[in-house]
Amino acid sequence: MDTIDALLGNNQVFAANLAERHLDVEPQRHLAIVTCMDSRLDVFAALGLGPGEAHVLRNAGGIITDDVIRSLAISQRRLGTREVMLIHHTDCGMQKITDDGFRMELQETTGVSPSFAIESFKDVEADVRQSILRVRRSPFLPHRDVVRGFVYDVDSHRLREVEATEQ
Ligand SMILES: [Zn+2]
């Protein structure tokens, strides 16, 4: 049995033990979180969030890509979120590659040069500041007053806020 089959079994137990309910599609806390896909960061547990409370957008690095802006635009314009929380973390896989190296690896092994940016980083705090700026400067987002960035320590489980360099 592969991992997905095991998870399907878990879902049957999960659903059997939970009363049927319908939550509103709009997140109750009017919050969107952008973070890394890292498997050690349990966003809901770390922040005390439950289902129906916030949007959580994840990708490699928690990078503010065009697709993240797309999701944030829908989140704010159609689903009522007003605050954006950005969470990077210590020991991120994106710190272990370089843009040029990974791009070359993809091109050499597949023959295709990717159209997307790799967006690796060395300095996690600098990348959080860059992410805050990208959100604050996006013309597609109506709510840019509350955009805060953090680094999550995967060992201590604590969040540290990163001050933005400019508004
Ligand atoms: Zn990461």
- Residue share in β-strands: 15-25%
Tell me the strand order in the biggest sheet: 2-1-3-4-5
Distance between the termini: 52 Å
> What's the gyration radius in Å?
18 Å
- The average pLDDT score comes to 97
N to C succession of SSEs: HEHEHEHHEE
Shape: globular
Number of helices: 5
Structural class: alpha/beta
Got a strand count? Answer: 5
Helix content: 25-40%
Main attributes?
single chain, 167 residues, alpha/beta, 5 helices, 34% helix, globular, binds zinc ion
Structure overview:
This protein is an alpha/beta fold. It is built from five helices and five strands, in the order H-E-H-E-H-E-H-H-E-E. It has helices spanning 3-16, 43-47, 66-78, 99-110, 124-136; strands spanning 31-36, 54-59, 83-89, 146-152, 159-162. A five-stranded mixed β-sheet has the order 2-1-3-4-5, covered by helices on one side. The longest helix has 14 residues, at 3-16. The chain is globular and about 50 Å long. The model has no long low-confidence stretch (mean pLDDT 97). The chain binds zinc ion. Zinc ion (ZN) binds next to loops.
